[in-house]
From TrEMBL, chain A:
It comes from Candidatus Sulfuritelmatomonas gaucii. NCBIfam families: cytoc_DsrJ (NF038038). InterPro entries: DsrJ, Multihaem_cyt_sf. SUPFAM superfamilies: Multiheme cytochromes. This is Hdr-like menaquinol-oxidizing enzyme, subunit E.
TrEMBL record, chain B:
This is Hdr-like menaquinol-oxidizing enzyme, subunit A (HmeA). It comes from the Bacteria. Keywords: 4Fe-4S, Iron, Iron-sulfur, Metal-binding. It comes from Candidatus Sulfuritelmatomonas gaucii. NCBIfam families: DsrO (NF045797). The gene is dsrO. SUPFAM superfamilies: 4Fe-4S ferredoxins (SSF54862). GO terms for molecular function: 4 iron, 4 sulfur cluster binding; metal ion binding.
Amino acid sequence: MRDRVWIFIGLAVFVAAFTAPFWHVHAKTSARQPDLVLPANQKECVAPASTMRDAHMQMLLNWREDVVRRGDRRYVAFDGKVYEKSLTHTCLGCHSKAAFCDRCHEYSGVSGPYCWNCHSDPQATVTRSRP
Amino acid sequence: MKITRKEFLRLTGLSLLAGGAMQVVRAIGQGGTAARAAASQPVRLGMVIDLSKCREKDGCNECIHACNTTHNIPQIANRAHEVKWIWTEPFGTVFPSAQTGYAEQSYTKVQVPLMCNHCAEPPCTRVCPTRATWKRDDGIVMMDWHRCIGCRYCIAACPYGSRSFNWQDPRPAIASINPDFPTRTKGIVEKCNFCEERLARGMKPACVEACPQGVFTFGNLADPESEPRDLLRSRFALQREPELGTGPSVYYLM
């Protein structure tokens, strides 16, 4: 029973060493959400924010098929408002690609979408075409 | 419950009658929709190009310029890699069988504006393995660049050379990108789309709008009262290689 102190010290050292990576990462980074810039001129999106967060990718794919393959450009939103099915005009008409799309995609490690290989960000192209 | 022979036969007969009646009702319903479809006007979009007007302004390429800026078409010096939606070629190359040999002055010098013919029977759409290109109900031979895998079967099938392949990244070769229209990427086929995106907004194709001579007349060839049909009724017109059976929707007035 005289070793009790040493046993507890040893246990403490073991627990500290075992959980060290977690503490290390926690100290270096934070779980803070990305600093997204929301549109100043609009309050409502084409669908509630929770739906957009979960399903914007499906919606973009559906819009793409509708516009290109069916020639259907009219989107009637949940509140009856009518929008044009357009990435450039509707989505980027309010949102900023750099301060909204890219920030969240970088944060969540989603590098996948190749939208921008062809589609252009109106804000970026305006600054680019200026000498 | 026991069923008698008489009841069984009666039930069978009634079921057969009901089944037959269903078929009749369905046939009548389908006949109705077919009649309705025939009643709605068919659309076949087409273009009439008046070469006599085009001749008046030698060296003008406003139509090509308008198309290039509208659709972010790269300007590549290497002819093997060039991308073109609307371009020109000498009359003799475009209509080799329409030459008399003595028409030097009036025809041979003329550069003829060319574009996708948006054929009635497009050979390009038949060979596409991914259905990235197809003929719409209004006659436009459309492309879905999201789906193009760059196999170039359509380029081989098109007898008019209307399709171009992006051998290199087109973006560096575009002077100023129009954000309203996508660019393409390396490995994608592209061609004239009759300004489908402008038609959807109620505008005319860019080349039609840009031409200072009013060379291009765009409209519904299926409508006998339309502008292009008016021209085709009164003037002699040629199509490019109609003997191939593709049924081009682009007509040339001499």
